[in-house]
């Protein structure tokens, strides 16, 4: 049963709280901060190259989108370094950047009025592998006690809470769509009365353990040429290239943001998630339903959407299914479609969150960033792909899509 909305003293219904994005924090293979990343995607600079974090020679896949080397102690307190996986370090850096970008003063709000929701699909795999190697080779006395939480799915939400002293509603979502789902969950918190939520996802699994797990999907590209390995919607598509990074964003209630003079990037106007039907049922995948439901939730018609940020699996069957869903909703070549992740690789849970940040930047700057390396699109009469160079245009409404093992999520962003 839905809650009744109380009337104002004058008999009118108060405006439903609106969730707007006021701060972005990006850490990506082709940009160590938001400005560097945005410049890279507008100029088609990719961050995919041969793996350096470990020797990939013995593996069939050798390419990844890695975040550049950095001095961790310049960003993370020294006491935290031995406690944290690469994933958590990148999350803390992105969250700090999002707070700075929003000009939010964390001390100006009661500690229980800031929520935190993060997505994570794999946990702290690099830390886990290192400590398990100690267990096998040296014995249990050499295993760090910090392993008890450094691997855990909820660790990023907890570490952000500790770092900033925020003790409002918290949560963690899992799976490769969870960066998008976390942002939608932040919207729910705002609608329920919370003024500020830190949300998003940043992820890293650049270690042999993570690599071996990913190889079992059979969907990683084994092409060694970094310009040819990840080609979504291309006739030469051979799989995806994994990467690390993502984005954290500050979500605020619109009136709260307005009251402190913040300039929002976008509004989180609609969201939906669906499951695919049972294999062999002959029913269509659930992505189209997710798109239609998200548009309905936002009160937006298909002809009002200015751009779609595609999931872009890089796997022929999945790309065809996504193209069919987009075409079913918007018509053939009915909306520009882009996938800047061709420059970074697929960042697990961090990818959809990064797409939300990129879409928000598109709305602010009036330009759609391109996808790169795709030269022979499958059914070019079906999708209006933004290829090779940016497309300058007004972006008032953007649709962001994400898929993961039978789950489909869609978020609609509108001009705030």
From TrEMBL:
The record's keywords, sorted A to Z, are: Acyltransferase, Transferase
Gene3D superfamilies cross-referenced by the UniProt entry: 3.40.47.10
Please name the CDD domains in this protein's record: CLF
Superkingdom of this protein's organism: Bacteria
Q: Which PROSITE patterns match?
A: KS3_2
Gene Ontology MF: a single term: 3-oxoacyl-[acyl-carrier-protein] synthase activity
One biological process GO term for this chain? fatty acid biosynthetic process
Transferase: is it a keyword of this entry?
yes
Record keyword Ribonucleoprotein present: no
Q: Where would I find the Ketosynthase family 3 (KS3) domain in this sequence? A: 16-416
Q: Which family does it belong to?
A: Belongs to the thiolase-like superfamily. Beta-ketoacyl-ACP synthases family.
Give the protein name, as stated in the record.
Answer: 3-oxoacyl-ACP synthase II (Probably chain length factor)
Q: Which organism is it from?
A: Streptomyces avermitilis (strain ATCC 31267 / DSM 46492 / JCM 5070 / NBRC 14893 / NCIMB 12804 / NRRL 8165 / MA-4680)
Name the gene. Answer: pks9-3
């Amino acid at each position: 049963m839905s809650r009744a909305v109380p009337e104002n003293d004058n008999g009118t219904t108060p405006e439903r709280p609106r969730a707007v994005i006021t701060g972005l924090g990006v850490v990506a293979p082709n940009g160590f901060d938001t400005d560097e990343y945005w410049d890279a995607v507008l100029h088609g600079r990719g961050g995919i190259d041969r793996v350096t974090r470990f020797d990939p020679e013995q593996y069939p896949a050798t390419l990844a989108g890695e975040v550049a080397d950095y001095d961790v102690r310049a960003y993370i307190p020294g006491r935290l370094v031995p406690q944290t996986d690469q994933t958590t370090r990148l999350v803390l850096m992105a969250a700090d950047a999002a707070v700075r970008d929003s000009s939010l003063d964390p001390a100006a709000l009661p500690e229980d009025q800031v929520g935190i929701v993060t997505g994570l699909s794999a946990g702290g795999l690099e830390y886990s592998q290192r400590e398990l190697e100690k267990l096998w080779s040296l014995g249990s006395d050499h295993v760090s006690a910090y392993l008890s939480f450094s691997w855990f799915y909820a660790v990023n939400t907890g570490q952000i809470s500790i770092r900033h002293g925020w003790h409002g509603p918290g949560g963690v979502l899992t799976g490769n769509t969870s960066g998008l789902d976390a942002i939608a969950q932040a919207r729910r918190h705002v609608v329920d009365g919370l003024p500020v939520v830190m949300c998003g996802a940043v992820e890293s699994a650049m270690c042999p353990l993570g690599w071996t797990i990913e190889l079992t999907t059979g969907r990683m590209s084994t092409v060694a040429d970094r310009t040819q390995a990840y080609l979504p919607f291309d006739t030469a598509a051979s799989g995806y290239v994994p990467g690390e990074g993502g984005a954290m964003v500050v979500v605020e209630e619109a009136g709260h943001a307005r009251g402190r003079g913040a300039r929002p990037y976008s509004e989180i106007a609609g969201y939906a998630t669906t499951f695919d039907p049972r294999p062999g049922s002959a029913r269509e995948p659930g992505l189209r339903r997710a798109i239609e439901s998200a548009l309905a939730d936002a009160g937006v018609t298909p002809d009002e959407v200015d751009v779609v940020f595609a999931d872009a699996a890089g796997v022929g069957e999945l790309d065809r299914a996504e193209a069919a869903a987009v075409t079913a909703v918007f018509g053939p070549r009915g909306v520009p479609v882009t996938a800047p992740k061709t420059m970074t690789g697929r960042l697990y849970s961090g990818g959809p969150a990064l797409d939300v940040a990129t879409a928000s930047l598109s709305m602010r700057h009036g330009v759609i960033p391109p996808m790169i390396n795709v030269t022979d699109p499958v059914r070019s009469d079906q999708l209006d792909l933004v290829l090779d160079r940016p497309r300058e245009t007004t972006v008032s409404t953007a649709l962001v899509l994400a898929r993961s093992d039978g789950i489909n999520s869609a978020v609609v962003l509108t001009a705030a």
